[in-house]
From TrEMBL:
Keywords: Methyltransferase, RNA-binding, rRNA processing, S-adenosyl-L-methionine, Transferase
Binding-site list for S-adenosyl-L-methionine: H18, H41, S104, E122, D146, A147, D167
Family: Belongs to the RlmJ family.
Gene3D superfamilies from the UniProt entry: Vaccinia Virus protein VP39 (3.40.50.150)
GO process annotations (BP): rRNA base methylation
Biological source species: Acinetobacter larvae
Entry protein name: Ribosomal RNA large subunit methyltransferase J
GO cellular component, as recorded: cytosol
InterPro entries: RlmJ, SAM-dependent_MTases_sf
Entry EC no(s): 2.1.1.266
């Protein structure tokens, strides 16, 4: 498998991830102190949903496409977290065409202040070249580097505050994600006060339960689980749902995440009965 995010850009999982990413950064902005955003798998940074890759999968049709078709009355009923996300997408589409959709580094830079910095990793040569072309911001340092070793080399950042977004392609991170459990342990050990967010796919609930048990055994405190499943757990499709594990979530983030996911669920679910969204503490204080 040679993963390319172009096939999946703008799908329901991207919507969920980017809505929550923006809220994590907005919460970091509530304090005056500078912070650093670190993206372990930056991808191309920007996508065109009119390309053959995106059209072939058509995944965006059940993601961002559903939301941009909503009437303004419905959009105004959405939580602020969702409205902020949709406003960024609307501005990008107005500027660069209806097929335009940003990646995580782009979304992050829209929220970061002039004083904040970003470090973005991407190890695939051709994708990294696209990233350099799409992300031209003096606040962002782009690195053609394997995130598994690169991340540990740049933390803790000199800013001391910040967010790590880990969103691997899940080519080697199979079964119950043992490589990611080890990575999270190492990151938290080196930077115990950093906010760490891991996006993960939900295809097999038993596997996710094993992953959660491993994370509990790490002894890391303040682990928050955010999930949205657009299909029931037992539906034999490629992706039933996705989750975001957040270590050290900022104040009020859990409530905002819950409100956003509960609003998104009826607009993104694939059938009436079975899909669900939830925000819960895996490990508390």
């Amino acid at each position: 498998m040679n993963y390319r995010h172009h096939f999946h850009a703008g799908n329901f999982a991207d919507v969920m991830k980017h809505v929550l990413l923006l809220q994590l950064l907005i919460r970091l902005n509530s304090k005056d102190k500078v912070y650093r955003y670190i993206d372990t798998h930056g991808g191309a940074g920007f996508y065109d949903l009119s390309t053959a890759e995106a059209q072939k999968s058509g995944e965006f049709l059940n993601g961002i496409h559903r939301l941009v078709k909503l009437d303004q009355v419905t959009v105004r009923s959405a939580p602020q977290a969702v409205q902020q996300y949709l406003k960024i997408v609307e501005n990008v589409r107005a500027e660069r065409g209806k097929g335009a959709y940003p990646g995580s580094p782009w979304f992050a830079l829209t929220q970061m202040r002039d004083i904040d910095k970003a470090t973005v990793f991407e190890m695939q040569r051709d994708v990294f070249q696209q990233l350099k072309s799409n992300i031209r911001d003096k606040r962002a340092g782009l690195h053609e580097r394997d995130a598994y070793e690169g991340l540990l080399a740049v933390i803790p950042p000199q800013e001391k505050r910040g967010l790590v977004m880990i969103d691997p392609p899940y080519e080697i991170e199979r079964k119950d994600f043992p490589q990611l459990v080890e990575l999270l342990q190492n990151v938290h050990r080196k930077w115990p006060t950093g906010v760490i967010a891991l996006w993960y796919p939900i295809k097999d609930r038993a596997m996710i339960e094993r992953f959660e048990k491993k994370m509990i055994k790490t002894g890391i405190r303040r682990q928050l689980i955010c999930e949205i499943c657009v299909w029931p757990d037992d539906t034999p499709v490629g992706l039933n749902g996705c989750g975001l594990l957040v270590i050290n979530p900022p104040w009020q983030f859990a409530q905002q995440a819950s409100e956003a996911l509960q609003w998104l669920l009826p607009h993104l679910r694939m059938q009436e009965q079975g899909p669900r969204a939830a925000v819960r503490w895996l490990v508390g204080e």
